[in-house]
């Protein structure tokens, strides 16, 4: 079983898991802090509390990256859903609850990480094992970097907060330049690489490892290296592809990970923590409120009804785009596993639109559609191989033959026996699209590759049969608006992102 989440359920009762609305960096009271951080176990539980803020991350990644991209044509039929304005590039997204949650949840995680880090400094004698103390600091810093990186990719400039602050102090913190936020992210991940463990015993699976930190840092360098589009977003045109390459090579050389075959076994409920997984968000089920929600989010309620699963609610279908459906070559096993093509439900009503079902196993569900016992894989070995190919194509040391070999390893596992030659960046991004469909990577891949405006503006007129998408899609749409709730906290503290 997954010990991290057993600990979290108890830790949240102490009050550290309460939702901080907006950018609320209110510190835990001195009394509660003194009574909690008494020994190493307390610090471990506090770090687990930082991990727990990842629970809703897969849902947000799906909405803000997949639904935003050419993988989904998310126009509803039963009223406007929260995800529909994201698909449509609406100018009103500053009030969207999904966008607001991306801000709130990331800063909640940062608050928890900062609390742990501050207490490690304030209580230097509580943990007597130096290696354990360094590891716990590394885990907190890894997670803080993860949250800030997600904020950069979502909002561009954000407030940079490295310690717990009072509400009055928070109101003095403006948005920092993207470069400054990246500096903290890189520093935190470098410390994590030096001090995290290579691997963990079963009881601690799910904790970040050295390879997890290497992989996320490589993703950071690839993202920073992407074009800036004339906005203050995640790309800085920094050309740091050569910094990503050795990190990816270190993961490959560690021999701790490999491609898992067949493709479906990567996501099997009885094969979690397999050789392909480098970092994931850990869940368990049983009706205790700590199972995953994202598999049920991707599938509509009418499908569950047709399958004889009486789940509550009225979740509408989020259709896979025809463009993605038509992109899979014959024999690609990823298509049938990732996408459910159609179904018939009550009174023989036929639903012709396809939806993602990559993480869905009806027989493995918990008590309802909010309780799935499957981990969400944030970083896996196939991504490392394809990021290496990307770094080489963008100018890092390597040959076109190496690129072809890396891409063809992934294609071969997908059942595609005809190898590609002279793979270019556009082809690579299409391979990534099919490999990682429904995994929250597509929008970010398009942005950092420099293809996002070209691809989306070619796609939207063809796919948008109901003329709902705000066209043309511009550079201002690459990042999301600062939530209205944050803009209203203190007049003039933040300037809204252009276009909203």
Structure description:
By secondary structure, the chain is mainly α. It folds into two domains: 3-289 and 376-487, Serine Threonine Protein Phosphatase 5, Tetratricopeptide repeat (Alpha Horseshoe), CATH 1.25.40.390; 294-364, no CATH class. It has helices at residues 3-11, 30-36, 40-52, 57-66, 84-88, 97-122, 130-155, 167-170, 178-195, 210-225, 241-253, 294-298, 301-306, 322-325, 333-338, 381-393, 400-413, 425-435, 442-449, 452-463, 484-487, and strands at 158-159, 175-176, 277-281, 339-340, 343-345, 349-351, 355-356, 376-380. The strands form four sheets. Strands 1-2 form a two-stranded antiparallel ribbon. Strands 3-8 form a two-stranded antiparallel sheet. A two-stranded antiparallel sheet has the order 4-7. α9 (178-195) runs antiparallel to α10 (210-225). Residues 1-31 have low confidence and may be disordered.
